[in-house]
Amino acid sequence: MKARGAVLSRRNAHSATVSDWKTLKVGERVEVVKYAHVIAAGLIEEISSSGNVVWLEHSGPGVTEEGKELFMKSDGVTLRRA
Question: Source organism's superkingdom (predicted)?
Answer without folding.
Answer: Bacteria
